[in-house]
């Protein structure tokens, strides 16, 4: 075999430019750091050998082209060289003859590949064919092991291993054809089986038709016999039907004559009844007119009386308000006069103060003129000089400056304290005045509230009295309504009893009529059974319920006939219980002696034996219990699913619901006409009393007025109470402030006394200082004083400045007193204005209320006049109404008597009509029976012998068929056309004399028995009457089925042959590969695992899951490392799995070995020991005909290689570069 010499790459992945990698020897190891481009070399070999891009760690082929930007570590480094637009890989291969073959694959920037063989462009098919010629299989990838393939092989399941061997062996190429031919074979087998079954079915059908032919001939003979019997039976039945029609029509005619006579009498009574009703209506109309007049007058009175009451209440209210207004006015007038005196007094005090102030100013000016000295200019200069000289001396440190300053401070403090005390005293006086005013206002508001409260209490008392009167009216009205309701209920019972009696009478008459017409009617269930003891009557009645009124009949046919009769007679509804058609529940014997005091309702009823099923149907498994406690114990405590009924009629249903109780099973008592009249008179009397109460109630509008007045007074009282509360709050505030001021005054007086004492002490000191200063002043100012004629300088200052200080102080006192009087006068004037305004409002209100009261008296007088007029008319009309009512009652009694006579005569007419209707119904029933016979003949094509007419002339209408299980009466159906109207005459000559004279049902049962016997025989045969005609067609079908079966069998044989041929090819290809691999796997695994310690190595073998068609199931791979027991592959360690997987890959490669084998990091998961064993294996098997190229990172492996290809990263060129080193010269 050949070998791979070298690889040339140009711009492929990380390899920039054109680079030559190699040469490759029999064992070449590719080494280099991670990221240098080792796996890209693997991709380059795979790429040039035609492997698809999906297996080359790329999505598109254009990703194989070198891109400098993708490999640049620094993204900011500028790229001056554009990325190439194409890449190629050239593999130089040397075959067995020493000739080199160049395989080249090119990819451009569009992702398109180009293949060249020895520098000549070829198609992929030729390219692949050249590779296969050198045993390089691209599909099977038998020349390389990718990174991670060892781990995937180690973890794959048996199915995946089968698929891998199929790809290696080439049996995969037969898979599609195998499956197609398999489906064709299955379809052919199915078609052949279908054709065979069809042939067998047609053969069986021929035999069946031959048997059916014989049976059909016998069947036709029996049908003819039955037809003759049916004709004879129908002739016999028609003969006796027509005889019965003649008899019934004669009886109906007699009853018709009697009914006509009774009808004439009824018409005469109806005329008398109508005349009496007309007279009664006239009287009733006149009475109604009087009632309307009385009602109108009552309405007018009812409208006027509330107005009267309202006016009276309003007059009382106005009078009270006038009295209150007058009282308030007098009080306000007194307050106004008092306040006016206060204002005048304050004005007089202010005037006196002004006069005193003016007088004081005049005296001051006069005194000042008398006492003031007038100095010359020389004297003024001299006094100024002397004062300056004295000041220097006076304020020198030597003198008593401190005493003067202390004196000045004490004088200022005394002045401030005096002013503060005066101010607080003035404020206290003002607050006391204000407090007195507020106390007066509070007293006045309290008085007003007391008066209004008294009015409110009076109205409330009046309202309470009226409410009591209204409640008494309501209680009386409720009592009358209850009595009226009892009376009305009794009248309703009378009417219901009349209706129920009429209904029962009609039902009983209908039942009696049906008993006469239909022999199978037995009667009501309540009449056919009874309880064994009287104490069970209520419980049995409750158990059966409405079923007691059900009518018991023989069969469903009788029930249908009765329903039809009731529908035509329109006599109501009924439930029918057919003895032979009831679904009867079975009796549970466990309940017969279940517990003491309980027994089955079925066991406490007496009945005739033939009615057992009906009684059982009505009662079921219901238990009759003596007490409710026993029933609860059974249903609730023991949880029995059963219905329980007590002796008093209480029911506990199966659902747990409890209903009923003590009720009377007796029907309502019958009412006499006298009782009915008494009830009606009682009803009218109670209604009249209720009307009178309603009138009295409508007059109670004064109650609403009283409520309204009370509500108004209540509102006023709430307002006054709020004002009183506000005044009390203000009074409390003033009292608190006054107390605070009094406390301050009490605290200030001791301080003032202390300040006065301190001031006296300082005054003494000041006098001492002033005495010393006086000596100095006298010495300094002695000459000046002599010149102006005064004794001392102090006398001069007193004359010159003392009057000014006094006038200033006095003026301040006058100003403070004037301000206080003006403030108080302003407040009192405001109070006076408020009182004057309030007085004017009260006078205005008094005038308005006086005028309103006068107008109200006039209106009340007019209203009373109208009421008197209405009262006179009401008395007159009431008398007339009483007379007309008596007359109407007399007419009503006459009408009632005529009505009773008319009802009695009507019952007689109805009796005649019912009897006539009974005969007519019988006639119609017999006619319907005749029609039914003719319909049967026409529908079933039965030919009767005729004397006249034709069967086609029969007008047989379609009558709706009623369902057999419906027992209730439905709407009346349309009657059939009478057969006597048909132009057809039956020939009864075939009937013998015995059949003509004997119309008994026994003969009918004999006819029906013979017909039924023939029908049973016919029904049991069920022949195929078309068997003879179809026999010939079936024979032809048999021939066609045989031909189709032969054709299908031939096609099936051909499909089997084709399928077996492909199956054998696929089996041979697969089994040849499997046999080889199975033989090699143990040897390879031993070579990989043997060592000095374990010279025999491990054991490995393959086993098929399906030996007949192994490619359809999985292949199990078992490997046992040295000195270890058998175990599944999943239980081996990671290294053991990798060695086993590598052995499998090498064994598979040995089946159709390629000239070289490329392994990418197959030792990644192996420890050093296993790596050394793999390296030894490669060294032993590497040769000129079997070349190994291994990518590895472990020196234990690559140091044993013949040569090394080192791959590194050239950072400057941003490309992967290679170095080659031959190691055989370095081996030990």
TrEMBL record:
Location of the protein in the cell: Chromosome; Nucleus
InterPro entries reported for this sequence: P-loop_NTPase, RecF/RecN/SMC_N, SMC, Smc1_ABC, SMC_hinge, SMC_hinge_sf
GO cellular component: cohesin complex; nucleus
Keywords from the named record: Cell cycle, Cell division, Chromosome, Coiled coil, Mitosis, Nucleus
Chief site of localization: nucleus
Keyword Cell division: yes
SMC hinge domain ranges (all copies): 519-635
GO biological-process terms attached to the record: cell division; sister chromatid cohesion
Molecular functions (GO terms): ATP binding; ATP hydrolysis activity; DNA binding
Coiled-coil stretches: 336-363, 400-448, 676-779, 818-915, 1024-1051
Family: Belongs to the SMC family. SMC1 subfamily.
Protein name per its UniProtKB record: Structural maintenance of chromosomes protein
